[in-house]
Amino acid sequence: MKELRLMKGNEAIAEAAIRAGVDGYFGYPITPQSEVLEYLMLQKPEERTGMVVLQAESEVAAINMVYGGAGAGKMIMTSSSSPGISLKQEGITYIAGAELPCLILNVVRGGPGLGTIQPAQSDYFQSVKGGGHGDYRMIVLAPFSVQEMYDFVETGFDLAFKYRTPVMVLSDGAIGQMMEKVEVGEQKQRLSNEQVKERCPWATTGKDANRERNIITSLDLDPQQQEDFNHHLQAKYKEIEEKEVRFEEIQTEDAEYIFVAYGTSSRICQKSVQLARAKGLKVGLLRPITLFPFPSKRLLELSKQVKGILSVEMSAGQMIEDIKLAVECNIPVEHFGRMGGIIPSPEEVVEALEQKFL
Amino acid sequence: MTEEIIIAGFGGQGVLSMGKIMCYSGIVQGQEVTWMPSYGPEMRGGTANVTVIISDERISSPIISEYDTAIILNQQSMDKFESMVKPGGTLIYDGNGITRHPERKDISIYRVDAAAEAAKMETTKTFNMIVLGGFLKIKPIVKMENVIAGLKKSLPERYHHLIPVNEKAVNRGTEIVQEMQKA
Questions:
Q1: Can you give the residue ranges of every domain in chain B?
Q2: Residue A48 is part of which domain span?
Q3: How far is B97 from chain A (nearest CA, A)?
Q4: Which CATH number is A15's domain given?
Q5: Burial of A41 (0-12, 13-18, 19+ CB in 10 A)
Q6: Per-residue pLDDT tens over the stretch A91-126
Q7: Strand, coil or helix: what is A335?
Q8: Does pTM surpass 0.90?
Q9: Does A268 contact B65 at a Cβ distance shorter than 8 Å?
Q10: In a domain, A283, yes or no
Q11: Do A6 and B62 touch (CB under 8 A)?
């Protein structure tokens, strides 16, 4: 029988981690995501599954613990909110450079700097364009409900291990703090050391007599080898762009205008679609579920059907750049957003659509 | 059916837990629910509010700017949320500490003097359950038996002996709620 719970987004992702058989979580508290660590500590996962949960001395320490655990082929995750994620960037680019799987949760708050503790979506560039140095990408999943906060733990780890890449769950303060109904899955066993060796032949699991030693590093001083490695990474990102795009469409079939929005903004926009339709406007919504890879192909198709796109983001306009690239100047693309921790109202979004296009 | 509710008052009045119990009750009867609290700096100033949406369908925006029902438990919340009730909607308030009573003519207004009643019952902590009872009398969106099931789910087991007291408080709320104005 399915088990239903009422949970905060932050609690749901923590429970999902235990049930998915995650081996380790390393983090450092920051509003609005401290419940992840608090929930994990209260649940005593070391007793439930043997999962290690540790409050590190800093975000920098936490991400480097992730690097170490992931190098050993374990399922490892961390979480933070915007200022803390900035601190983790060095570790993230090393993890991408060493081709290690892991899950990183960002419960975004308003910035820049320490900013505010309220929800925002102003870390889009940092997440999808590579917040650290070097030519790397992360798969970025954008949950729009507490259920997806739960579900994206397994989805995220599946993708992380399939492509040996860090995966980010890009959430925000609203989804982290709100409670909704969640269907929780079965408790899975953590993998045994033998299973880890089989799944991750590249991991530092202890060298035995019949294999070469495995080395986890992002350093290669030979330029030709480094270029070859970069080509390999780019080929991997291209494959991800071809195979892993996820999105949802709401009432786009007959739409003349569409909103493009992810996460909390996409929830607001669902209501805006209802309000606009009640006024007789043919409006739909495309919700990217993966931000990298971005649903560019579908947007290009839609640009031949619709008259205009309104990108709705809780930022000054970041995702709009990817929409503009996708539609190849076929139609006008405009931005509407609020910043600094303010969530736009569904009515405001409809007004913005009317002002910009009608 | 979709009911969009704001519950607002002082921190410590049980605003957030009242919302949680409503949500649990909704889940028990197979509905969709969202519970969106204020967690920002205003919370640190002593006021607390939560938006609760209970619906038979998938819920779109968890953040809204007008409500079917406002449950108001202090003056600051009255000042902030009275104007945000939909025309024809419902406002329920506790008169305790209210200096400016609601003035809108286009909404239904009910009063449930839960603070005074909780003091009389000598169970001041069940204040929020009396308010909940008043609300459910006006808007029976969740069944009473599911409220008790919701209470069981939201309270840790060590507090389950308090369920009968809470049940009594909910029932008392249904008795004492008074209609002040019909929209």
A1: 2-181
A2: 3-193
A3: 29
A4: 3.40.50.970
A5: middle
A6: 999 999 999 999 999 999 999 999 999 999 999 999
A7: strand
A8: yes
A9: no
A10: yes
A11: no
